[in-house]
Design goal:
mainly beta, 9-stranded mixed beta sheet, 7-stranded mixed beta sheet, about 5% helix
């Protein structure tokens, strides 16, 4: 198991202070920390300041990167959120990958409205077209920091995204043919519908964690391999890597009935942040799967093949762990995991601009 070792204070520019209320992803690249609020269409970069052992770590010097400056969003002229739920850095190729939830949403009931209007609201299911985004953006080093770039002339790297539109993309079209998963595309994410949360880079392939559906207690991870579409420099398609000519592989994990909230790679291991698929507070657990993906086969991973490394504290109606990344090595060389939260509790807010994330030493 693991211990909370310290806090990280994320401080945002004044015009962006509301971002701290709901962070969904985290990714460290050198001395920068990249996060996102799932109700926006941008990525946020913070600079990690040096801290002595035992001191709180400050991440500030906030800069916002609107994704429409690098990508063709399906609905570019609106405020429709991307619902960013996965962020992963490809250290070998220098790309930052980002993925939206690909999920539908159901309207919430409003305590100020009469019963019949709330019944109508709870019957309304909507799709935000920007949620169907899976893309990569080059990361470049500028003046001792890291920035996003649309194109890198020095090595030919370009921003690119999976072929699609406001109604779906190549991945959802593939899933629409899957006998196990296709029916869940029509169900909102928080109703155990199709909902991507978490992404990890494994060589040339991506792992996409599903918060839902959870099938009789079994969680699904999708493995895909995006590549440029012929001579295109900005459009990605999916290689056929699965059985029966499919463009994906399915892997099933026994996570005690929980769905994926985030993924990250630790050496040859995969860390899985798992939480409820429905709109519940907890439990929240970090599992370690040792050895990663040793074969090109679809896998069924039972609970005795997983190690529980952390039970994450959660609140009542708040403090929902949503994003994680490896942050640093501890004094004894152990891994230190950063976890950031959605629906943050009031006690986590620091002043007018800051919010507290947690560091845990993994043992």
């Amino acid at each position: 198991m693991s211990d909370r070792s310290n806090a990280v204070i994320l401080s945002f520019a004044r015009a962006f202070a509301s971002l701290r209320d709901g962070l969904s992803v985290a990714q460290r690249i050198g001395d920068t920390l990249w996060v996102a609020n799932d109700e926006t269409t941008s990525l946020e970069r913070l600079t990690i300041q040096h801290a002595a052992p035992g001191e709180e770590v400050i991440c500030d010097e906030h800069q916002s990167f609107p994704l429409m400056a690098y990508l063709d969003l399906p609905i570019p002229e609106s405020d429709d959120e991307i619902d960013i739920e996965g962020l992963a850095f490809d250290h070998d190729q220098g790309y930052l990958w980002v993925v939206g939830s690909h999920s539908l949403k159901r309207k919430k009931a409003d305590p100020d409205k009469p019963a019949q209007k709330n019944i109508k609201r709870l019957s309304t299911v909507e799709a935000d077209g920007n949620r169907f985004l899976l893309a990569r953006i080059p990361v470049v080093q500028q003046h001792d920091s890291h920035e996003l770039a649309w194109v890198v002339d020095a090595d030919g790297r370009t921003a690119a995204q999976l072929h699609g539109n406001a109604l779906g993309n190549d991945l959802t079209r593939e899933i629409a043919q899957d006998e196990q998963l296709r029916d869940f595309l029509r169900i909102p994410g928080k109703d155990n519908g199709f909902d991507i949360e978490g992404m990890a880079v494994i060589g040339s392939r991506l792992l996409l964690g599903l918060r839902g559906p959870v099938l009789r207690g079994w969680t699904v991870l999708l493995e895909i391999e995006p590549e440029l579409d012929g001579d295109s420099s900005d459009t990605l398609v999916l290689r056929k890597i699965g059985p029966h000519g499919r463009c994906y592989r399915k892997h099933f994990f026994a996570l005690n009935g929980l769905g994926v909230r985030d993924l990250c790679v630790s050496g040859d291991d995969l860390l899985i942040l798992a939480g409820p698929t429905m709109d519940l507070d907890g439990p929240v657990t970090v599992f370690r799967w040792r050895g990663g993906f040793p074969s090109d086969e679809e896998l069924v991973v039972f609970s005795d093949q997983l190690e529980t490394v952390l039970e994450v504290p959660f609140g009542h109606g708040d403090d929902h762990a949503e994003g994680m990344c490896l942050f640093d090595l501890g004094e004894d060389g152990g891994e230190v995991l950063l976890i950031v939260y959605d629906a943050v509790a009031k006690r986590r807010k620091r002043g007018e601009l800051g919010v507290e994330g947690d560091l845990f030493i993994l043992k």
